[in-house]
Amino acid sequence: MIELEFTVWQFVRIMVDLEERGNASPAYKAWRPAWRELDKQLEVTHKKNPEAFADLMMNKEVIVDADKSQILDAAESAKRVARAIARAFEKEKNQRAKDDLIFEQGELEELYSQLTSIAENAG
Length: 123
Fold this sequence. Notes:
The chain has 123 residues and is mainly alpha-helical. It has one domain. It has helices at residues 8-19, 26-48, 50-59, 68-91, 95-121; strands at residues 2-7, 61-66. Helix 2 (26-48) packs antiparallel against helix 3 (50-59) and helix 2 (26-48) packs across helix 4. The N and C termini lie close together (11 Å). The mean pLDDT is 93.
């Protein structure tokens, strides 16, 4: 097993994507308990303290153990989400929202590369 570290917003993006695949996704199946706990925490924090919510999303990490199949699953998810963000960017009119989308897309593309590299070295 390999320990993976995601920024909370990255983990959220990946898990929302993988949730659609359910138990067919090895990463979703393995990380579902962590996802449910985080989702509850985010929901409560968002309602009580929007500033703390933003800090949690952007500045905190989620650490999960993963095998090669889960790493590859998460990598493919990051790639799918980055593509979806690229499509959303084309439709977006608001420049601030476009800037946010560019940031997310770049970070997810970088995450895809990192996860792919980790999987290759996992044997």
